[in-house]
Amino acid sequence: MPVSQPSLSRPEFAAGLPIVDGEAIATTERAIAVINPATGMALTEIPLLGAVEANRAVESNARAFGEWRAHSAAERAAILHAWFALVRENRNDLAMLLTAEQGKPLAEALGEIDYAASFIQWFAEEARRINGEIIPAQRDRRVLVLKQPVGLVGAITPWNFPAAMITRKVAPALAAGCTVTLKPAELTPLTAFALARLALEAGVPAGTFNVIAGDAPAIGSVLTSHPGVAKFTFTGSTTVGKLLTAQCATTLKRVSMELGGNAPLIVFDDADIDVAVAGTIASKFRNTGQTCVCANRILVQNGIHDRFAEALAARVAAFRVGNGLEGETDQGPLITAAALQKVREHVGDAVGRGARIVTGGEGHEAGELFHQPTVLTGANPDMRLALEETFGPVAPLFRFETEAEALTLANSTRSGLAAYAFTRDMDRFWRLAEGLEVGMVGVNNGIISSETMPFGGVKESGLGREGSRHGIDEFLELKAISLGLPPQPAIEAEKPRRT
Predict the structure, then answer these.
(1) CA atoms within 13 A on the CB side of 56
(2) Active-site residue, 401 included
(3) Which of 143, 235, 245, 254 lies 20 to 30 A from 137 at CA?
(4) Do 410 and 268 fall into the same domain?
(5) Beta carbons of 318 and 286 less than 8 angstroms apart
(6) Contact predicate 99/324, CB 8 Å
(7) Is pTM, for the whole model, over 0.85?
(8) Domain check: are 253 and 328 in the same one?
(9) Alpha carbon distance 287, 382 (integer Å)
(10) How does pLDDT run along the chain (499 residues), one tens digit per residue?
């Protein structure tokens, strides 16, 4: 099979070898190709693994768990700091590999590697801050509360952020003393294998962190049903998340779910137009619109609507679209033909229901999986792009009159991951911050994610939080110990002194 790989300082990163128990799995009877979505050419083939390898990975996690949890917090922190340093050292190679298999512009890929590294550094530091409690329950006893690693962790991550979604789960799990088997998306496994290789080089013991890919249903079934797996964490679609949660219920695993969104972005009449346009572009068009927190519905108040639409369309029409490894670009390809088809269907449905294309709206000459960045006006809540995540470079604008109307429109979805608002009214800021039914709110900015912020949603957008000091708690169990005290002699009250 002819392949076309990026030129890397460490060519072994592109080999595409899963890692189980510290060893690379070089061959199996079956293999799958990893395709560059910008060119349609294969980067390499990876072994197609399944239930056998998944069980082997979990068993190696079990063997490694005792040793890893016995490491002191300082020892685990030092290994994670070494992993962080290696990721930073290999930043350029990792970014090129990520762009090659995922398609995002190289500048965005470099930003993602930095973002991914930030979670490793953050949780290396949090490893030393896992503190318990002593509660003076009664006179004759004390309650001690310990925080201990939950145990073996199964993790599944998506294709849209092949590095950051991994470190946001794996780093806190390792910091807490857990062992992990990760299944990355089959569309983008190479970045995951490279990160695992660097973790081994940093000193993570064999079997502590395994990475396998291939037969997704077979691997997922093992990770959700194996009695040895205590915790399961998933980032992906709401439909798949519900299915996996149900599978985990058979063994009552701890579950974290970071699922789909339908984020509203609200622009009020008093907003700074330049700030609002820049924030909308950052939220909507990052990764070609393929993010779970990107603005899916852009609600613009009547008084500013036309000026905002004109300014946004002018910026979007100037985007540079193309292969992220062939010069500076602002937009890359969609990940698959199915993803491109969904974008086309959403645009066609919207136009058929009365929307107007201001810019874009069609495919792009850069390649088969490219689509023109698009701005639509006249969107309404009955359109598919209002009811479903488009997951592509389409910005639909909805008009509204009042703040109450905007809040009702924003909350009219079963999703509740993120929301954005642009206003200079601080009273309105507090009303929106408390009234939006989401897990995260961005006000006057379109990029909300960082290692310091708890990431997660409400309603059908998920369970649990990732990142921040709260992220490590997802991988810890509380153990309460009631300690009886010996009888204490009565203390005679001191007599008052004469003055």
Answers:
(1) 15
(2) no
(3) 254
(4) yes
(5) no
(6) yes
(7) yes
(8) no
(9) 26
(10) 557 788 999 999 998 899 999 999 987 789 999 999 999 999 999 999 999 999 999 999 999 999 999 999 999 999 999 999 999 999 999 999 999 999 999 999 999 999 999 999 999 999 999 999 999 878 889 999 999 999 999 999 999 999 999 999 999 999 999 999 999 999 999 999 999 999 999 999 999 999 999 999 999 999 999 999 999 999 999 999 999 999 999 999 999 999 999 999 999 999 999 999 999 999 999 999 999 999 999 999 999 999 999 999 999 999 999 999 999 999 999 999 999 999 999 999 999 999 999 999 999 999 999 999 999 999 999 999 999 999 999 999 999 999 999 999 999 999 999 999 999 999 999 999 999 999 999 999 999 999 999 999 999 999 999 999 999 999 999 999 999 998 877 666 666 666 5
Pair of tokens at residue 41: 């050419």
**Is 453 domain-assigned?**
no
CB contact burial 15-27 (16+ within 10 A = b; e otherwise): bbbbbbbbebbee
Return the amino acid letter for 374.
Answer: T
State the residue range of the domain holding 293: 263-443
- Structure-block tokens of residue 44: 């390499």
Q: Is 412 within the bounds of a domain?
A: yes
Residues 6+ apart with CB under 8 A from 178: 65, 68, 69, 149, 150, 151, 152, 153, 231, 475
Which among 53, 101, 108, 258 is annotated as catalytic?
258
Paired with 377 in beta bridges are 356
Per the structure, the count of domains in the chain is 2
Q: How far apart are the first and last CA of the chain?
A: 100
CA distance 68 to 83: 16
Cβ neighbors of 172 (< 8 A, separation 6 or more) are 119, 123, 126, 466, 471, 472, 474, 475
DSSP, residue by residue, 104-142:
--HHHHHHHHHHHHHHHHHHHHHGGG---EEEEEETTEE
